[in-house]
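Data deposition worksheet. Section B asks for the primary sequence of the deposited chain exactly as it was used as input, without tags or linkers unless they were present during the calculation. Section C holds the resulting structure in token form. Section D is free text for depositor observations; keep each observation to a single sentence. Incomplete worksheets are returned to the depositor.
Section A, Depositor: J.P.
Section B:
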Amino acid sequence: MGVILKSNNYTVTTFLTVQGHWGHKKEKSLQTLNSFFLGTRNDFNIFNPENSVEFLKRLNLFCFDVIKLNGNILFVNTYGYFERITLFFGLRSLESIKLNNWVNGSLSNLLHNKPTVLFISNINNNMYILKEASKKSIPVIGIQDSDISINRITYSILGNNDSKEVFAEYSNTLSNTIIKAKLFNFCKKIV
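Section C:
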């Protein structure tokens, strides 16, 4: 590629290493995402890694500002496949975590602190959470794969949403941003 873009130590090289550039088969992909693909290989769409890194930069700025303004991010996983990753990075960043069952109305009735933002592990398996978040005007962060409509997620990160490595890498980057914002708030208080 030649050009390495940095975003909180996240680079095009990192994206390619974790195989984040692989989308779904061409026939399952949505036409609205065509501008984000480099092309296809073996009938699978390939995301442009530079777009993915740019989306991640925007997401990091947004999340930093949310935490800086004393907001919170709820890590949500109802899909057992990513449960340990969600738990680890949610705990690491000292944010709330909701695992396994999600009952309709959880945002209004079951959660003590209304989250400022939701980070959802697998959008396709959690459409009902997106609807509830939309009704409550809560922004949603999620991995935008080639088979997910781009207008369903407030802050999308382009990439393979079925890969543990990709989800772990994005969760790590998000967690690092949250920790930096909390350290920034702490330093403001002591100065």
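Section D:
The chain has a mean pLDDT of 78.
The first strand starts at residue 22 and ends at 25.
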